[in-house]
Amino acid sequence: MLEKCVLGWDADEDDLLLETVKKKNIGGIIVYAKNIKDNFTAFSKKLRETSVNKNLIICADQEGGSVRRFMDEDIFVMSARESIEFLNPIQYETEVYFMGKRLKEYGIDLVLGPVLDIVTSKENILWERSYGFMEDILKFGEAFISALEKAGVSSCIKHFFGYGLANPDPHGNPVSIERTERVKTSMFPFVKMVSRGYKDFIMTAHVDYEGEIVTYSAKWIKDYLKKSCGFGGKVITDDLMMKSAGDMPLPEKVRKSVEAGCDYCIISGRLVDAVKKLSPQAL
């Protein structure tokens, strides 16, 4: 099951991570600011050389604005909300391209963005991270995706089928969408991108709809997203350590995600804890 997991690690676990990728077939790692040191490029190269998984994913949240793990000023991109105010899609694509090119030099092969959630309220936690309404979501979202593709980095549109019309903050609370028309509206940007040929990654949202969390729903992932919409890329969960993912044991969260059709599961926190919980004995 570790081959389905994209794991985080703490700043003091670099050696453990190298040992883990050498001995265990993990799907990938997610990079946070705490992991980035002066020699990160060399470290990521060593990880790839050491890993038994030769397709090891090294990903990071680098959307722009305050959501960025690599703090280099020369690759700074404004937040989604600022970008639609001050840039046109062509200018935005250029900025994201230079960001993606630099991230590739660091060893990043997947950026967890752009955010395609429809956000209409400033009270929503995703306000600054979202392009807002449909027209800008499609124009600027495609610019972000195109820029990364040109830089040789995969993108991940998120969060299917949307935190934007759900309340409250998914990082600390259960979230739900109560009305069917909101579901149809929330998922439209994702369906549209897939219809236009998008085939990288889609991240699920831990949104409860009709008593089922989307991340654990075969109805929405296997049957709708993959079969009905024809999405041929990879589906990755939002962080399973978020409270909105439920309070069940971690192995059960991974099992339910994979059974629903998710290809990878993000798990933040200490590496030693995740590996222990997801060992063959635990599963």
Main features:
single chain, 13 strands, 8-stranded parallel β-sheet, globular, 283 residues, TIM Barrel, alpha/beta, 3-stranded mixed β-sheet
In what order do the strands lie side by side in the largest sheet?
A: 12-9-7-6-3-2-1-13
Give the SSE string: EHEHEEEHHEHEEHEEEHEHEH
What is the CATH class?
Answer: Alpha Beta
Q: So how many helices?
A: 9
Give me the CATH architecture, please: Alpha-Beta Barrel
CATH fold field value: TIM Barrel
Descriptive notes:
With 283 residues, this protein is an alpha/beta fold. Helix 4 packs parallel to helix 5. It has helices at residues 14-23, 40-50, 80-86, 89-106, 134-151, 180-195, 219-228, 250-260, 271-277, and strands spanning 5-7, 28-31, 57-60, 62-64, 67-68, 110-111, 154-160, 175-176, 201-204, 207-209, 212-213, 234-236, 265-267.
